[in-house]
Specification:
The chain is mostly beta strands. It has a single domain, classed as Beta Barrel (Thrombin, subunit H), CATH 2.40.10. Helices cover about 10% and strands about 60% of the residues. It has a 6-stranded antiparallel beta barrel. Strand 4 and strand 5 form a beta hairpin.
Length: about 100
Amino acid sequence: MTDDSVKLIARTMTGKDSRMNPIYKETVSETYAVSEPVSRSEFFAAGQIGIDPQYLLIINPAEYSGEKIAEYKGKRMSIYRTYERNENELEIYLQKAEGLNRGGS
């Protein structure tokens, strides 16, 4: 286990550009996180549906508002699953994802 921080990113579509590509507004909040190894069973279960787990982070559930994007260790990743362990601990599972650059689709 390692203590760290993670940026949780919420995206809201605000309109479309002249080429009809979506324009997003992002809201970023940073929170304390504890990193734990992803279990072998998680790798297996996620792999069955085409997901490649990268990180398991534990955060306070009060800090999470359903965000689908996280920035961790300088990389943007998607949050593919969450699990509330108890009232003080929420597991968030991260995977690599394409198309999560700032302002893009």
